[in-house]
Write a structure and sequence with these properties.
Layout (H helix, E strand, L loop, with lengths): L17 H12 L15 H11 L4 E5 H8 L4 H21 L5 H4 L5 E4 L2 E4 L7 H15 L4 E5 L12 H11 L3
Parallel strand pairs: 1-4
Antiparallel strand pairs: 2-3
């Protein structure tokens, strides 16, 4: 629906953003390690990313960082990991239907539990964001693909309670290849 205020997910509903969409798709195709989509509020950045992720044939997750901040008051490592686990639970059937056996990567991460079509965090373990990224990277190398982790409203990662997400992002660019 063209004039619906909610973020779009299909190209047909994206209005007058062909150039930006092509630039984003090209950056994804070139396997750029960090892609930043920025602009004024309420201009369709989330829609642009959602449409692009639906168009590419790669495993991906989109995490709403603003939602985490508004619900929990900060973006701690545990709340971010919990949101990633929830997003994997939501996406697992679709990812596996598309031929991405992502369960194999997730089983290698200590503290993640995979049962049927649900991914949860073990409550008694410390969770490692870098371990999750390394497991996804190793899996992608074996599969010959790359994984896209889109952080919508990433500027809210500054409200962290001590975690240096800028450092984690820099580390992933320097150390991960897919």
């Amino acid at each position: 629906m063209l004039f619906d205020l909610r973020p779009k997910t299909s190209r047909e509903d994206l209005f007058n953003r062909d150039q930006e969409l092509q630039s984003l798709l090209q950056a994804i195709e070139l396997k750029e390690p960090l892609i930043i989509v920025y602009g004024l509020r309420r201009m369709g950045k989330s829609s642009l990313v959602k449409v692009a992720l639906n168009m590419v044939k790669r495993p991906s997750l989109m995490i709403d960082v603003k939602g985490i901040l508004y619900e929990y008051g900060n973006v701690s490592k545990n709340t971010l990991m919990r949101e990633i686990a929830r997003a994997f639970t939501e996406s697992l059937p679709l990812l596996e239907k598309a031929g991405f056996k992502i369960r194999e990567a997730l089983q290698r991460v200590k503290g993640l539990r995979i049962k049927d079509l649900e991914v949860t965090l073990e409550p008694t373990r410390k969770h490692s964001f870098t371990e999750l990224l390394q497991a996804l990277n190793s899996w992608c190398e074996r599969q010959g693909t790359h994984f896209i982790l889109a952080l919508d409203e990433a500027q809210y990662l500054r409200a962290t309670g001590g975690i240096r997400y800028d450092g984690l992002i820099a580390w992933s660019i320097d150390n991960l290849h897919t």
